[in-house]
């Protein structure tokens, strides 16, 4: 058996056993149309092709990443009931850590499953659109939005909103201005430190409408999920995969930057007069004087 | 002969007194000036300067009183701006630009913390001793040659932190903050592995977290790794 097929047997068996255990304890129920076996098969096909980034030299992730992180990322995927073949998430290597990163399709799928939401829809608001809503008890209610086709222009986006509709016709609405959306985008690694608007030719610019929807959907789902019951196993893994991502990002940053550049201090011969205390002079007085005179001399 | 005296080292306050025999300095002043005076038996008049790494209160609480006592303060522009003090005794220093205070030559360098413009310090004296001081940084970008003394933060161990988050002692958000602001045991070890320690005489572990550390274990593990004298800067 090749190395990779050994990894496969080990990790896939471990994950499958764990999933079975959860099911037997009644902690995990999959929707009728979700097959954990199929999702894992899809995942494995994708993983065999997946390569690390430039810094690690485009090596196969299955060779580079730790077995534990491969197993954990598969478990996160399966428990959340997601399938990478439906683009509900991606496997990304951060150094030796493999992470299952949920896409916004994935976030929508989990939200529907956990909160019994019926529909999740998002729309972009352009200059000239008519938008009307009330705020009742701190919640946005009765949002109506009228748009003329001619208003659609990616350079004139004012904001976006997302509505989560439940089977009892309750609606949860999340609204973001373009400023807020950009603030969220600025946290992405693609944005430079002081960048405040999207770079021309970047994904945020080229697909601005879709990216706006994605951002507001993510915000709506996460807010709603975080305000709901979090004792379930799914919620645990929903959170865990976010946490694992934060951790892996920091670890990757550290291993990329830490302990890399030599610096040294050059000892400088000092002007003896400026520090030697002439004998016989009362020390305290002297130190006050010298400390006032002495300013740092920069090299 | 380099002498290091720990006056305080924790998230409640940090202050260290160092001297090479001719130029005594304070590193940080994150406790009240009274406590600094007490810790030094009221011998503060010969202190030639106070280096401050960043503006968080546990590192600069006494800055106004230090200035009043006639001690020059050295910090980055960002730190001085954020401390919101003004005085002719404030000296702006910059990363990678070395300067002198008495017999010390000091090279500040960038550290990684959630504040304006944090610095660490590499200090050398006429006797050829070389001290590294790095705290409140989740990693150090740099490597150093010929260090004789190391004072480095060792805030938490990831396994202890995880356990504390799991049983609810530490909020999850705190964990994310620690990751991007403080030095973990594992990363301190990586740092020590990456540096030539052949000249090192002693290593001080600073700023241990109240609940997410274990001083005996940290001391033992760093001793085992380096074979050096390891001291825990007590809280």
UniProtKB/TrEMBL annotation, chain A:
List every stretch annotated Disordered: 253-299
Protein name, entry field: Recombinase
Pfam families found in the cross-reference section: RecT (PF03837)
Biased amino acid composition, Polar residues: 282-299
- Gene Ontology process terms (BP): DNA metabolic process
Which terms does the record give in the GO molecular function aspect? Answer: DNA binding
Query: What species is given as this protein's source?
Result: Desulfuribacillus stibiiarsenatis
Question: Where do Acidic residues bias regions lie?
Answer: 263-276
From TrEMBL, chain B:
Molecular-function annotations in GO:
hydrolase activity
One Pfam annotation, family name? Lactamase_B_2
- Superkingdom, according to UniProt? Bacteria
Q: Does the keyword Protein transport belong to this entry?
A: no
Kindly give the SMART domains that the UniProt entry links to this protein.
Lactamase_B (SM00849)
Record-annotated Metallo-beta-lactamase domain positions: 12-182
Which keywords are on file for this protein? Hydrolase
Report the protein name in the record.
Answer: MBL fold metallo-hydrolase
């Amino acid at each position: 058996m090749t190395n990779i097929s050994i990894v496969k047997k080990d990790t896939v068996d471990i994950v499958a056993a764990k999933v079975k255990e959860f099911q037997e304890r009644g902690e995990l129920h999959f929707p009728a149309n979700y097959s954990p076996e199929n999702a894992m098969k899809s995942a494995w096909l994708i993983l065999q092709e997946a390569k690390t980034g430039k810094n690690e030299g485009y090596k196969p992730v299955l060779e580079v990443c730790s077995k534990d992180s491969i197993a954990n990322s598969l478990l996160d995927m399966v428990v959340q009931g997601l399938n990478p073949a439906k683009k509900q998430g991606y496997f990304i290597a951060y150094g030796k850590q493999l992470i299952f990163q949920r896409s916004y399709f994935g976030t929508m799928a989990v939200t529907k499953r956990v909160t019994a939401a019926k529909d999740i829809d998002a729309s972009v608001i352009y200059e000239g659109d008519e938008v009307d809503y009330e705020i009742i008890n701190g919640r946005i209610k009765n949002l109506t939005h009228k748009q003329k086709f001619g208003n659609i222009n990616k350079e004139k986006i004012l904001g976006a909103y997302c509505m989560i509709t439940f089977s009892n016709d309750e609606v949860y609405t999340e609204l973001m201005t373009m400023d807020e959306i950009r603030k969220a985008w600025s946290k992405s690694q693609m944005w430079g430190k002081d960048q405040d608007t999207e770079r021309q030719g970047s994904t945020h610019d080229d697909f601005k409408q879709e990216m706006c929807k994605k951002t507001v959907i993510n915000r709506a789902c996460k807010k709603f999920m975080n305000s709901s019951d979090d004792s379930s196993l799914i919620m645990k893994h929903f959170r865990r995969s976010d946490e694992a991502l934060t951790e892996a990002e920091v670890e990757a940053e550290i291993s990329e930057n830490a302990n890399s550049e030599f610096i040294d201090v050059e000892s400088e011969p000092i002007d003896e007069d400026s520090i030697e205390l002439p004998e016989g002079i009362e020390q305290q007085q002297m130190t006050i004087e010298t400390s006032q005179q002495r300013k740092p001399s920069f090299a | 002969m380099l002498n290091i005296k720990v006056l305080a080292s924790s998230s409640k306050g940090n202050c260290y007194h160092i001297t090479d025999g001719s130029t005594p300095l304070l590193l940080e002043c994150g406790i009240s000036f009274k406590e600094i005076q007490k810790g030094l038996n009221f011998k503060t008049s010969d202190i030639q300067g106070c280096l401050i790494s960043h503006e968080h209160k546990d590192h600069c609480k006494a800055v106004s009183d230090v200035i009043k006592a006639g001690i020059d303060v050295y910090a980055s522009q960002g730190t001085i701006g954020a401390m919101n003090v003004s005085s002719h005794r404030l000296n702006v220093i910059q990363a990678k630009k070395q300067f002198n205070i008495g017999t010390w030559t000091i090279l500040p360098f960038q550290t990684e913390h959630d504040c304006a413009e944090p610095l660490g310090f590499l200090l050398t004296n006429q006797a050829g001793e070389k001290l590294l001081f790095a705290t409140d940084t989740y990693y150090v970008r740099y490597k150093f040659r010929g260090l004789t003394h190391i004072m480095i933060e060792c805030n938490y161990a990831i396994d202890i932190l995880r356990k504390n988050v799991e049983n609810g002692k530490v909020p999850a958000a705190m964990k994310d903050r620690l990751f991007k602001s403080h030095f973990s045991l594992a990363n301190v070890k990586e740092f020590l592995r990456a540096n030539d320690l052949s000249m090192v005489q002693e290593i001080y572990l600073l700023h241990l977290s109240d609940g997410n550390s274990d001083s005996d274990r940290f001391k033992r593990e760093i001793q085992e790794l380096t074979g050096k004298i390891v001291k825990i800067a007590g809280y």
